[in-house]
Known about the structure:
The protein has about 350 residues and is mostly helical. It has helices at about 20-70, 75-85, 90-95, 95-110, 120-135, 140-150, 160-175, 180-195, 200-215, 220-235, 240-250, 255-290, 300-305, 320-360; strands at about 295, 300. The chain has two domains: about 65-75 and about 80-110 and about 120-235 and about 240-255, no CATH class; about 270-360, no CATH class. The radius of gyration is 38 Å and the shape is elongated.
Amino acid sequence: MELRGYNSNAVPQRFLLHNHDDIYLLSRKRRLNLTLIIVVSIMAATGAVTAVSGQLTSASSPSWVNLLVQLRSNDSEVRSGAFDQLRLDPTALRDPEVKAALVNLLDRENEETVTGDEEDYSMYVDTLSDTVTKLVDWSDPRQVCILANSVYPPAELADHARIAVPCLLRRLKKNVPHTFQGQVVAMMVQALAKGKRELDPAAMQAARQATLSGLHDPDEGIRMDTVNALGKFGGEDMIPALRVVAEKDPAIREWAAEAIVAIQQQTAAIASGAALIVSGTVLGLLWRFGVWRYMQVGGTDLRVILWPSSQMLTVGWCSTLTGILITTYSVAINCWLYIGIGLLLRGVLLRMKRAVAPTKS
């Protein structure tokens, strides 16, 4: 059957497919062309997205510039508004120029006079201090001192005592308003407790002297802040000074006594922990091996030395109600024994320090 209007002789031979190989090659070529088109399209789309992203970034930079200018405004509300916009932009907070500007802003706000009625301004400065705390370079003394001079010194200062304590000491040498002086002393007590190994002897002595001055400051609020800080972070060397306050300062006598008890409880907690470790180790060996000989060194029974009350234990120490009760009682006795030894050693060490102190001076 011949198709009307179609003449195969009119088609050049080079355009005719003579076998299946020709058909396969043509199909493969079309697939390659389609793949090339898809790849080029993806590359073009990626380039377009990159270009748009670059335009957005370049478009946001001028807004940062405007906000950085506003941070230097003489109007505190303008500065506060600019800061609020920057702190909500994570990309901006990663920019070195923005970081430096916020640190300088906090430095400026530290010099501003804040009154009790300016609640909004106080909240703004407090939020600014929190933000700078997350951005500050803790190896830079200038930036750390700016944080130390803030209205409410952040607790992170205590973790960097080597740089923070000198800053706090310099702040106390200035005429710090009594409203904030107590917080500065309290922060120094905390930094002194956490960073004793980082501080040189001169800084340690200066910080201790500042703490003693805080205990006897004419302002009751400063004395209270100092006592509360010592109760949380103070060492045993401050107990004699606290006893003097408890005896001679009726206004804060009760809080000074509570601070002494809190410091003593730290020793008791350490001693109890040691007793529980010893008791647990002995009971673990007994549970695992069922005999005492693993705790004997030569002719010395370490169990009797480290846990004297363990001689109360019975064969059913963990299998009968009576045995369990006796075991619990024995562990409690050992804890109290360790606490007594710890308090005794603490008292001896304090007496030795007081005896050596006049000789050094």
